[in-house]
Design goal:
Blueprint lengths: L2 H12 L2 E12 L4 E5 L4 E13 L17 E8 L6 E8 L10 E2 L6 E3 L9 E2 L8 E3 L6 E3 L3
Parallel strand pairs: 3-5
Antiparallel strand pairs: 1-2, 1-4, 2-3, 4-5, 6-7, 7-8, 9-10
Length: about 150
Amino acid sequence: MPDGEKVYEADLKKRGWWLFNGTVVTVNPSANTFTAQLKTTQRVFTVTEETKITGHFGKKLTTLKDVRIGEEVGGLAKMSADGKQLTAVLVGFGKATDMYPFASPVPGRPGFVTSPYAPTKPPISMQGFPKGAEVRCPYTGKFFLNPL
């Protein structure tokens, strides 16, 4: 990961946002949670009615009942104010090569995201795109998912 991306990700975490990717370790549909093995730790994520869940290529909407242990998982989550709970905002299950990545919200610029394919390019407005929509990156032509 280039230094600029590390600084950006650190800034997101300071503001309570977490970009994550890893492997599903446990799934508890009745508690609306799943646990993911990230690079160095395991984290429990809570899924709410507002969580946008996608499957392969962002097309198939899924529930936690569809998730399998060992599947790849990635997304965007928000840490609670007390630092005890991560709530998934957008989450994709399945091989990373089978899903579109999520854009990153721009801190201090509501309605704008940074393309996962062009993190050093200017922010992109998501006006008119619903949460979870597939958006074509204006810089690369590749698709990503709108987290807002």
